[in-house]
Write a structure and sequence with these properties.
The chain is 47% helix and 0% strand. The chain has helices spanning 12-18, 33-37, 39-43, 49-58, 61-65, 78-82, 89-102.
Length: 109
């Protein structure tokens, strides 16, 4: 049995917050309203907005930015309307996609 080393970037959540659209990340208190309203999370069990926000906060940059999860958000904004803290998860997903491009995890093609 081997251990899997998880790389953590302690400054990753600060990078997300610094980008337009990510400024409300730290207002999330993980109530799960976004996950309950998300039509994608109903169809794709691995796509859970609450867990993705938690991954950002934990500094799981590499795991998240190279994940297919970034591309599942349909930008329907259902999450935005139900969030009691005005955290726009759809905007945070946009920030993550921009960071993935900027940091070379993906190309424009």
């Amino acid at each position: 049995m081997s251990k899997k080393i998880l790389e953590i970037n302690a400054g990753f959540s600060a990078e997300v917050v610094a980008e337009p659209g990510g400024e409300h990340l730290n207002s999330c208190f993980a109530c799960g309203a976004c996950s309950g309203a998300c039509p994608v999370s109903q169809a794709v069990p691995d796509f859970d907005p609450r867990k993705i926000i938690h991954m950002v906060r934990m500094g799981m940059e590499d795991r998240l930015l190279k994940s297919d999860l970034l591309w599942y958000c349909s930008s329907c904004r259902s999450c935005v309307f139900v969030c009691p803290q005005d955290v726009s998860f759809a905007d945070i997903m946009g920030v993550l996609a921009k960071l993935a491009l900027k940091k070379g995890y993906i190309t424009e093609e």
